[in-house]
Design goal:
2 helices, 83% helix
Length: 95
């Protein structure tokens, strides 16, 4: 057996082993980031579900209000006021 072929096979084995270890490390890091992204998506989906339930209840209440009292201009005014939200005042600087 040629000593050069043994040295080449050892070199190939070492290079392949290092490559496999690097690929495994990259795969682990990628998996960790992927799990983090999935957790974030799950939290966002839960928040969206909660908000959807709130909006559904509000619409049901609004519909019941319309059925009981009828559709008036004050209903539109309340709707616009609630959609706009609270106005915040800005502080002015005193020179």
């Amino acid at each position: 057996m040629d000593p050069n072929s043994l040295a080449r096979s050892d070199a190939f084995f070492i290079i392949t082993s290092v490559a496999i270890v690097l690929i495994a490390l990259v795969a682990c890091v990628t998996l960790i980031y992927f799990v983090g992204i999935l957790r974030s998506v799950r939290r966002t989906a839960k928040k969206i579900e909660q908000v959807t339930e709130i909006v559904g209840k509000d619409l049901a209440d609004f519909r019941q209000h319309i059925k009981n009292r009828g559709f008036t201009a004050s209903v539109i005014g309340n709707l616009v006021k609630n959609w706009r939200g609270k106005k915040t005042s800005r502080k002015t600087k005193d020179n």
